[in-house]
Write a structure and sequence with these properties.
Blueprint lengths: L2 H18 L14 E4 L4 E3 L8 E5 L5 H8 L2 H11 L3 E6 L11 H10 L6 E4 L4 H6 L3 E2 L1 E5 L5 E5 L18 H10 L14 E2 L3
Parallel strand pairs: 3-4, 4-5
Antiparallel strand pairs: 1-2, 1-5, 3-7, 6-9, 7-8
Protein backbone atom coordinates (compact mmCIF):
# COMPACT_ATOMS: atom_id res chain seq x y z
CA UNK A 1 0.00 0.00 0.00
CA UNK A 2 1.34 3.43 -0.95
CA UNK A 3 1.95 6.05 1.69
CA UNK A 4 -0.90 8.19 0.33
CA UNK A 5 -3.38 5.30 0.42
CA UNK A 6 -2.29 4.45 3.95
CA UNK A 7 -2.90 8.03 5.08
CA UNK A 8 -6.32 8.06 3.39
CA UNK A 9 -7.24 4.75 5.03
CA UNK A 10 -6.18 5.96 8.48
CA UNK A 11 -8.17 9.19 8.00
CA UNK A 12 -11.25 7.22 6.92
CA UNK A 13 -11.05 5.01 10.01
CA UNK A 14 -10.65 8.05 12.26
CA UNK A 15 -13.61 9.77 10.60
CA UNK A 16 -15.82 6.72 10.96
CA UNK A 17 -14.80 6.30 14.60
CA UNK A 18 -15.60 9.94 15.28
CA UNK A 19 -18.98 9.72 13.58
CA UNK A 20 -19.85 6.44 15.33
CA UNK A 21 -19.63 8.26 18.66
CA UNK A 22 -22.84 10.04 17.65
CA UNK A 23 -26.12 8.16 17.54
CA UNK A 24 -28.56 8.82 14.74
CA UNK A 25 -31.86 9.65 16.44
CA UNK A 26 -34.82 9.40 14.14
CA UNK A 27 -37.95 11.52 13.99
CA UNK A 28 -41.01 9.33 14.41
CA UNK A 29 -39.17 6.94 16.73
CA UNK A 30 -39.00 6.94 20.56
CA UNK A 31 -36.59 9.58 21.88
CA UNK A 32 -33.73 7.91 23.80
CA UNK A 33 -34.30 8.03 27.54
CA UNK A 34 -31.58 9.64 29.65
CA UNK A 35 -30.78 10.73 33.17
CA UNK A 36 -28.95 13.97 34.00
CA UNK A 37 -28.48 16.18 37.04
CA UNK A 38 -29.57 19.80 36.83
CA UNK A 39 -27.74 22.89 38.05
CA UNK A 40 -29.55 22.64 41.40
CA UNK A 41 -28.48 19.03 42.00
CA UNK A 42 -31.81 17.41 41.09
CA UNK A 43 -31.83 14.34 38.84
CA UNK A 44 -34.15 14.21 35.84
CA UNK A 45 -35.07 11.38 33.48
CA UNK A 46 -36.72 12.08 30.15
CA UNK A 47 -39.14 9.25 30.91
CA UNK A 48 -40.28 11.12 34.04
CA UNK A 49 -42.07 13.53 31.71
CA UNK A 50 -44.10 10.96 29.77
CA UNK A 51 -47.49 12.51 29.11
CA UNK A 52 -46.01 15.96 28.48
CA UNK A 53 -44.44 17.54 25.43
CA UNK A 54 -40.73 18.18 25.93
CA UNK A 55 -38.22 20.53 24.30
CA UNK A 56 -34.52 19.74 24.49
CA UNK A 57 -32.32 22.78 23.91
CA UNK A 58 -28.56 22.33 23.61
CA UNK A 59 -26.88 25.57 24.62
CA UNK A 60 -23.63 27.32 25.49
CA UNK A 61 -24.14 30.84 26.85
CA UNK A 62 -20.83 31.99 25.31
CA UNK A 63 -21.85 31.07 21.76
CA UNK A 64 -22.85 34.08 19.58
CA UNK A 65 -25.72 32.10 18.05
CA UNK A 66 -27.09 31.40 21.52
CA UNK A 67 -26.53 35.05 22.47
CA UNK A 68 -28.65 35.96 19.42
CA UNK A 69 -31.68 34.23 20.93
CA UNK A 70 -31.07 35.07 24.61
CA UNK A 71 -29.82 38.62 24.11
CA UNK A 72 -32.94 39.45 22.13
CA UNK A 73 -35.23 37.72 24.64
CA UNK A 74 -36.47 35.33 21.95
CA UNK A 75 -35.51 32.11 23.74
CA UNK A 76 -36.91 33.28 27.06
CA UNK A 77 -40.20 34.25 25.38
CA UNK A 78 -40.49 30.78 23.86
CA UNK A 79 -39.63 29.14 27.19
CA UNK A 80 -42.22 31.23 29.04
CA UNK A 81 -44.97 30.71 26.46
CA UNK A 82 -44.64 26.97 26.27
CA UNK A 83 -43.78 26.09 29.87
CA UNK A 84 -46.81 28.06 30.98
CA UNK A 85 -48.90 25.81 28.72
CA UNK A 86 -47.41 22.67 30.30
CA UNK A 87 -44.42 21.95 28.06
CA UNK A 88 -41.24 20.72 29.78
CA UNK A 89 -38.22 22.69 28.52
CA UNK A 90 -34.82 21.18 29.28
CA UNK A 91 -31.72 23.23 28.46
CA UNK A 92 -28.62 21.02 28.18
CA UNK A 93 -24.93 21.91 28.25
CA UNK A 94 -22.79 19.06 26.90
CA UNK A 95 -19.52 21.02 26.97
CA UNK A 96 -16.68 19.04 28.56
CA UNK A 97 -14.57 20.39 31.41
CA UNK A 98 -11.50 20.15 29.18
CA UNK A 99 -13.06 22.31 26.45
CA UNK A 100 -13.79 25.30 28.66
CA UNK A 101 -17.48 25.21 27.66
CA UNK A 102 -18.43 23.49 30.91
CA UNK A 103 -19.82 25.72 33.64
CA UNK A 104 -20.15 24.57 37.24
CA UNK A 105 -23.67 24.61 38.74
CA UNK A 106 -23.15 27.92 40.56
CA UNK A 107 -21.92 29.67 37.42
CA UNK A 108 -24.65 28.05 35.35
CA UNK A 109 -27.32 29.39 37.69
CA UNK A 110 -25.74 32.83 37.73
CA UNK A 111 -25.62 32.97 33.93
CA UNK A 112 -29.20 31.72 33.66
CA UNK A 113 -30.34 34.38 36.12
CA UNK A 114 -28.40 37.04 34.21
CA UNK A 115 -30.14 36.02 30.97
CA UNK A 116 -33.51 35.65 32.70
CA UNK A 117 -33.73 32.16 31.24
CA UNK A 118 -36.95 30.26 31.94
CA UNK A 119 -36.42 26.57 31.17
CA UNK A 120 -37.90 23.89 33.40
CA UNK A 121 -34.34 22.83 34.25
CA UNK A 122 -30.76 23.33 33.10
CA UNK A 123 -29.05 19.96 32.77
CA UNK A 124 -25.31 19.34 32.91
CA UNK A 125 -23.96 16.71 30.51
CA UNK A 126 -20.23 17.24 30.99
CA UNK A 127 -19.39 13.69 29.83
CA UNK A 128 -21.19 14.41 26.56
CA UNK A 129 -22.98 11.07 26.74
CA UNK A 130 -26.49 12.41 26.15
CA UNK A 131 -25.42 14.96 23.56
CA UNK A 132 -23.67 12.27 21.53
CA UNK A 133 -26.61 9.91 21.95
CA UNK A 134 -28.86 12.53 20.40
CA UNK A 135 -26.29 13.65 17.82
CA UNK A 136 -26.37 17.24 19.12
CA UNK A 137 -23.77 19.11 17.09
CA UNK A 138 -24.43 22.80 17.60
CA UNK A 139 -25.63 25.37 20.10
CA UNK A 140 -28.48 25.79 19.79
CA UNK A 141 -29.62 22.35 18.60
CA UNK A 142 -33.30 21.71 19.27
CA UNK A 143 -35.42 18.59 19.70
CA UNK A 144 -39.17 18.29 20.30
CA UNK A 145 -40.53 15.15 21.95
CA UNK A 146 -44.28 14.60 22.18
CA UNK A 147 -46.30 13.29 25.12
CA UNK A 148 -45.90 9.69 23.96
CA UNK A 149 -42.11 10.01 24.07
CA UNK A 150 -41.80 10.16 20.27
CA UNK A 151 -39.27 12.49 18.68
CA UNK A 152 -41.23 14.83 16.40
CA UNK A 153 -38.64 17.46 15.42
CA UNK A 154 -34.89 17.94 15.44
CA UNK A 155 -32.61 20.64 14.05
CA UNK A 156 -32.35 24.41 14.00
CA UNK A 157 -34.42 26.73 16.13
CA UNK A 158 -35.40 28.75 13.06
CA UNK A 159 -34.90 29.22 9.34
CA UNK A 160 -32.15 31.87 9.35
CA UNK A 161 -28.66 30.55 10.19
CA UNK A 162 -27.13 33.76 11.43
CA UNK A 163 -25.95 35.30 14.70
CA UNK A 164 -27.87 38.52 13.99
CA UNK A 165 -30.83 39.11 16.29
CA UNK A 166 -32.49 41.28 13.65
CA UNK A 167 -33.10 38.14 11.59
CA UNK A 168 -35.37 36.56 14.20
CA UNK A 169 -38.49 38.49 13.26
CA UNK A 170 -38.34 37.40 9.62
CA UNK A 171 -37.53 33.75 10.38
CA UNK A 172 -39.77 30.72 10.60
CA UNK A 173 -39.47 29.26 14.10
CA UNK A 174 -39.42 25.50 13.64
CA UNK A 175 -39.72 24.70 17.35
CA UNK A 176 -42.79 26.86 17.81
CA UNK A 177 -44.42 25.45 14.67
CA UNK A 178 -43.72 21.88 15.81
CA UNK A 179 -45.16 22.43 19.28
CA UNK A 180 -48.26 24.18 17.96
CA UNK A 181 -48.89 21.35 15.49
CA UNK A 182 -48.49 18.68 18.17
CA UNK A 183 -50.90 20.45 20.53
CA UNK A 184 -53.41 20.78 17.68
CA UNK A 185 -53.14 17.06 16.94
CA UNK A 186 -51.61 17.72 13.54
CA UNK A 187 -48.56 16.39 11.72
CA UNK A 188 -45.41 18.49 12.09
CA UNK A 189 -44.77 20.04 8.68
CA UNK A 190 -40.99 20.38 9.00
CA UNK A 191 -39.53 17.51 10.99
CA UNK A 192 -35.78 17.73 10.33
CA UNK A 193 -33.55 20.72 9.55
CA UNK A 194 -29.83 21.38 9.71
CA UNK A 195 -28.97 22.89 13.08
CA UNK A 196 -26.79 25.99 12.99
CA UNK A 197 -24.57 27.56 15.63
CA UNK A 198 -21.29 26.90 17.43
CA UNK A 199 -20.11 23.32 17.61
CA UNK A 200 -20.79 21.47 20.86
CA UNK A 201 -17.43 21.26 22.61
CA UNK A 202 -17.31 17.61 23.65
Amino acid sequence: MSKLKLIISIFAVMLCSSMSAFADVEVGKPAPDFELTDSNGKTHKLSDFKGKNVVLEWFNHDCPFVVKHYGSGNMQALQKKYTESGVIWLAINSGSKESGSYKDPETTNARSLEHKALPTAVLIDDTGKVGKEYGAKTTPHMYVVDATGTLRYQGAIDSTPSADAEDIAKSENYVSKALDAIVAGQEVATTVTKAYGCSVKY
